[in-house]
Design goal:
By secondary structure, the chain is mainly alpha-helical. The strands form two sheets. A three-stranded antiparallel beta sheet has the order 3-5-4. A two-stranded antiparallel sheet has the order 1-2. It starts with 14 loop residues before the first helix and ends in a 5-residue tail after the last helix.
Length: 254
């Protein structure tokens, strides 16, 4: 299949709505890239309203020139499931993703005070990729293309994020040239759910001297409670304090 050029992207949607959709998705990606979790998540709520308005318009036979915010997003999305004229993706899958995304906006400490959690990196990731999925589904619906072409079209709208950790040939590398050995270590451990052998993490950060790496990086980071270094087992893992340090101080996108 041929790629979709930007001029014809979502041509079936009114230009004012299409522009607002693309602008909102772009803002979500920019805020995420700049580590502004709350604006990123709030824009996710706006994108929900735009996508809902498009799907609702398809069901009604006319998409309004301006997006409409439903009184109750959950009830409105459930009503879309009754629209048998819509394909399953637009009738079932998109509305259910909309409900999940809107829930983050409303009840995770983003849109209102008193949510369960404060705006954070984990929720912002969910918002970014659910938003991209929703737009890709619209592209797939309007252009009758497969998911690969639809994803490529969305990536063309939003400059693809380059993750700072690159898996290569069984190793991992940090793609920040001026990062210190400590920051490289913390970034690499951030993506691991289990303890990593000392020799393996030293290889990943390309520290030439094992003794100085252990003394100057691992033991000092352990003392600062950023990692848990087990000298007996010779392995290391990131602590909750280390997780917070990475999310607040280190860029996760190159």
């Amino acid at each position: 299949m041929k790629p979709i050029d930007k001029v014809n992207l979502l041509a079936g949607v009114p230009s004012s709505v299409r522009s607002e959709l693309i602008d909102t998705l772009t803002r979500i990606a920019i805020n995420f890239r700049e580590r502004r979790w709350e604006p990123s998540e709030l824009n996710g709520g706006k994108l929900c309203e735009i996508v809902y308005s498009i799907v609702r318009g398809e069901a009604d036979g006319q998409i309004l020139a301006r997006p409409v915010k439903p009184k109750n997003m959950v009830d409105a999305c459930r009503d879309l499931e009754k629209e048998v004229s819509l394909p399953r993706s637009m009738r079932i899958q998109v509305p259910r993703v909309l409900m999940a995304l809107y829930e983050i906006r409303n009840n995770r400490g983003v849109g209102h005070v008193g949510g369960d959690v404060n705006p954070n990196h984990m929720d912002a990731i969910a918002v970014l990729y659910m938003s991209k999925w929703l737009v890709a589904e619209l592209v797939r619906f309007y252009h009758k293309v497969d998911t690969v072409v639809a994803t490529e079209a969305v990536d063309a709208i939003v400059e693809r994020e380059l993750q700072v950790v690159w898996p290569v040939d069984g190793r991992k590398r940090v793609l920040i040239e001026k990062a210190t050995l400590r920051d490289k270590t913390l970034l690499l451990l951030y993506g691991e759910s289990v303890a990593i052998p000392e020799d393996q993490i030293r290889d990943w950060v390309e520290a030439s001297n094992s003794s100085s790496y252990r003394r100057d990086v691992l033991k000092k980071a352990h003392k600062a409670k950023l990692i848990e270094y087990n000298a007996l087992e010779k392995n290391v893992r990131l602590s909750p304090l280390g997780v917070r340090y990475v999310e607040e101080n280190l860029s996760l996108i190159a």
